[in-house]
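Holo prediction. Input below; ligand is magnesium ion.
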Amino acid sequence: MPDRAKTEFDGILRPGARRLRQTATREQTFEAVRSVTNTVRSTLGPRGKDKMIEQPDGTVLITNDAATILNSIAVKNSVEALFTDLGAPSSNEPRDGTTMTIVLTGALLREAKALMEQGIHPATVVRGYDRAGVMALKELQDISIDGTVECRTLHQVAETAMTGKGLGIDQSALVDLVLSAVETVERDGMIDTDHIRIVTQPGRAIEESRMLEGAVLREDPVREPMPANIKDAHVLLTSVPLQLSDTSLDTAMKIQDTDSFTRFFQQEDKQIRAIVEHVVDIGANAVLCSSSIADEAQSALSDHDVLGVRRFDDETLSFAAAVLGGTVTSNIMDTTTADLGIGRITRDDDDELFLIEGSGESRVTILIRAPTPEIGEELERHVETVLDLIASVTDGQLVAGGGAVEVELARRVRNRASAVASREQLAVEAFANALETVPQTLAENAGIDPIDALAALQSAHASGERWVGIGTDGATTEMFEQGVIEPTAIKRQAINRAIETARTLLRIDGILTVQELSRLD
Ligand code: ADP
Ligand code: MG
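Structure of the complex:
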């Protein structure tokens, strides 16, 4: 039974309520962080290994994307859950740098544990980390190179982000696709990633992946025959089903005798045909409906030589609407010619997808092809990562990766530590040690002794070789020359996030279970 500690909780907890003692809580925190960190650290860098994740539905996911791993980990307790939550990027944040964030947080907690064992208060550690963080970010700013963000540099940045994402493919080709997509949608130096859509098609070779201007639909026409290639397409875009409303079906249920039944169905058929006739009258020769198209409507469309495509997600519909410059309608009878999107619809040679090009805004689709759905998903995640990354390199500040930037920051932070007079100095030094875990882990994953590697890097940096890091083969080399380049923004985010997470975790000094909390009433 856990001991009771005297704390501020004593006022609120009923006599007999239990909570974990401070030391037990901290042990649990350190252990949770250690265990989660150990799971992801082996994926860091170009030589990182993949993880196989068994999903609840029985399928297996192979990934080395830290965010995905964090979201899939079966957490053993509330601290692990908290740590994976804090570590994983939210959907609107760049995913790149996630592994580094976890590795750095893990190291900060490991160092904090050692400091606390020497009798240093956690609050002192947190203050020291905050100070070190400010120093590190200032130094990061100073050493960053203002990259002329030319295509070659962007290509290297993208390749660095893709490195180690195994799959034995030519990443350079995928990076090219992303870069041409970015170039196409770029307006005045701004890139709106919403203007780029990623569509994945399994069962094909990765080399067949393409960047296409316009929208792509993976659905088939609702009927044969229907025109599948329309040069001068006038497209009705709707999110409501092409059928009669439910209320008229309710009426059907109340009709008793067969005669009125027949009459009713004839009536219904007529109404659906009237809807389709309206579609034809306003000049549409194609209908894209993200919802369903009833049987009668399908044959009516086919009779009028109008293409019908149904059942895809609403995002695809609004993307197609933007491409075609049309309006998505939710009431077909009120739709007019002005609402129609205008452009061209083409069926691909393999009769598997539609390409929709139009007179609307410039939008592109990155069509990722992969042999299996699993590989497709993994590639999709990497392409998304690279896309976000490139879109985020707006300030043009860059550093060299491969652990070079971390070693340089550690050296500079350590140099400034002596100016900190209090015990916080130890925490500032601990922060520098934690930064060095990044090159050490890269070395370890490349099969090189991490202690030797770090010593070699430290001595190179001490003699002014600022951008020496761990190359793919594990050797120490100049990383800019290797083209291993990363946006400063990614490093800034990783440092901020690691400090924030460490701070949150170090502040926890009691864990109450729900059962115990329910006794607080
Ligand atoms: P993260 O989720 O943090 O992006 P990664 O597995 O992508 O994790 O690894 C990123 C680390 O790998 C960075 O420190 C980066 O500099 C380094 N890295 C990427 N490509 C190379 C390379 N070709 N050689 C050496 N290091 C590299
Ligand atoms: Mg990465």
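The longest helix spans residues 258-281. That is the main takeaway for now.
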